[in-house]
Amino acid sequence: MTKDRELPDPAFLQSLVDAHQEPFCLVDEQYRIVAANQRYSETYAGLDKSAVVGRRCHEISHDSDVPCDVHEECPLRQTFDQGHAFQVVHRHFDQYHEPDYVTVYATPIFNAAGEVVLMGESMASISHGKDLCFDAERMVSGCCPSFMRVLENLTSVAETEFPVLILGETGSGKEMAAHLIHRKSRRAEREFVTIDCTQFSEERFASELFGHIRGAFTGAVDNKMGLFELADRGTLFLDEIGELPLASQAKLLRALETGKFRRLGETRERRADVRLVCATNRDIQAMVRQGDFRADLYYRINCMQVELPPLRHRKGDLPELVNYFLDRAGHRQGISEAAYEALLAYPFPGNMRELRNVLERAMALARGARLEVAHLPAEVIRPERAPTVHPVHAESDFIECAEHELSEADHLREVLHKHRGNRRLAASELGITERTLYRRLKAQGIV
């Protein structure tokens, strides 16, 4: 390193790093950590900050011998190559080896000659992996490009106050996404109120949304606060808004535009400050063209749009997802190579919910033994019997994430290193048999 590229005094750099409250470190072009604050060291290594200095950043935050650009967009490469700040969502692993989804803010550090000599990297946690598993019917964590891009979009829209429309097929995790938006918003301490638009008639919807007073209709024996009012200063989540009748759409639109409403049977006008999040598995634009959904309401709710990837575009996450459901059920015998390959080839029109059901059925039939092809439903085994997929949006909108797409050799080495060469544990994490793992290692020239 020439004199003009020499780094400032280490004590000076450390004092700058310690000024940050969030996990923060300075990294050189060879991925080496030059300085780190105590929060960074404790979060990812459980060590004193002096113990991580000199080690490579991917060893600490990714628990990996190889840089993160093997399977994620590397902020260091972008920062040094382009010389400007860069932001990306990554999956890190904390000191307990639990996945931690974070927003990484990378900033170039220049010398007097205007050359980038270091990258400043700060991390803001979005959610731990377990936080993304609200229940088995919703989206489970992963690291495919499609999933990571959606996670980044969700955190971006959460910082705003604008209405959000979440598009996604059945079982793809729309409610989980809405929860995440609320938890990362300025309204997180207030109510998150859900309305399932498929459950109510036109009159019942108005009563549930706006409330009613005693005697407003037969059976209204008491005054009732509506969910719109309950969500005041919080978030109102309208699930499957595409099922809402046109008359109800008109009433909802007025309340959204003015913030004003009346309980049924009441003349007094009330106000509520509500952040709206909607979700649907239908093509709302087509419904607008057909006259089944009000165009003015569509433009009102579609200020910001997030599209959730179907499971068929997250095949690289399938081993992790299969392991999650098997572990959750206490199944320890694993799954055969043939059964796993059948799952990999299946399009899963029911997405995460269908994967869960398929595996639960297979475990019941296996009676504690290894899952085999014979334990899978006929539509999974025979592609011609698979239900038709009805995408909500264009297939080209998603980044394909096939299992073998992401530098398989490096990925295999990474998993083996994580388990100190133990093939049984590595195969378990990958959701395959040891025999399959050996075959793939051999094909990649690793053994």
Distance between the termini: 38 Å
- Outline type: globular
Work out the radius of gyration. Answer: 25 Å
Residues in helices, as a percent range:
25-40%
Q: Helix count, per DSSP?
A: 18
User: How many domains?
Assistant: 3
Q: Assign the CATH superfamily of the largest domain.
A: P-loop containing nucleotide triphosphate hydrolases
List the helices and strands and how they pair.
Layout: H1 10-18, E1 24-27, E2 33-36, H2 38-44, H3 57-61, H4 75-82, E3 86-93, E4 99-110, E5 116-128, H5 145-158, E6 164-167, H6 174-183, E7 192-196, H7 202-210, E8 211-212, E9 224-225, H8 227-230, E10 235-239, H9 246-258, E11 260-261, E12 270-271, E13 275-280, H10 284-290, H11 295-301, E14 304-307, H12 318-328, H13 337-345, H14 351-366, H15 378-381, H16 408-418, H17 423-430, H18 434-443
Parallel strand pairs: 6-13, 6-14, 7-10, 10-13
Antiparallel strand pairs: 1-2, 1-5, 3-4, 4-5, 8-9, 11-12
Give keywords.
447 residues, Rossmann fold, Beta-Lactamase, globular, 14 strands, single chain, Helicase, Ruva Protein, domain 3, 16% strand, alpha/beta, five-stranded antiparallel β-sheet
In short:
The protein is α/β, with parallel strands linked by helices. It contains 18 helices and 14 strands. It has three domains: 3-128, PAS domain (Beta-Lactamase, 2-Layer Sandwich); 145-307, P-loop containing nucleotide triphosphate hydrolases (Rossmann fold); 311-443, Helicase, Ruva Protein, domain 3 (Orthogonal Bundle).
